[in-house]
Amino acid sequence: MVKATWKGKVIAESNETIEIEGNQYFPADSVKKEFLKKSDYHTTCHWKGEASYYDVVVDEEVNKNAAWYYPKPKDGANDTVGKDFTGYVAFWNGVEVE
User: Fold this and answer.
1) How many domains is the chain partitioned into structurally?
2) Dihedrals phi, psi of 56, to nearest 5 degrees
3) Nearest to 57 by CA among 4, 9, 2
4) Predicted pLDDT of residue 33
């Protein structure tokens, strides 16, 4: 079981994560949405496409843009990964994944 935690709270937990470039991506239904707040921030990966972000919020503390996902991966990206990772969520910026 892979878990993502921040400030002592489990944000996501799954046996069905996908590892991409060293990051664990959690299926959307394994993420506790009450800890996420949509962000306006976006980045672009040359092969995965445009990523959208969430702030992670625990007890009113905000970890800005600490979670990201690809709402519509670039053509061929899912084939490269070997599985459809559309909407899967990854974490960084102090969120512990183990």
Assistant:
1) 1
2) -100, 125
3) 9
4) 97
Contact 86, 71 (CB under 8 A): yes
Range of the domain at 89: 2-97
Any idea what DSSP says for residue 57? E
CATH, residue 56: 2.170.150.40
Tens digit of each residue's pLDDT (9 = 90 or more) over 17-62: 999 999 999 999 999 999 999 999 999 999 999 999 999 999 999 9
For residue 95, the Cα-to-chain-centroid distance in whole angstroms is 10
What pTM, to 2 d.p., does this model score?
Answer: 0.96
CB-CB neighbours of 20 under 10 Å? 19
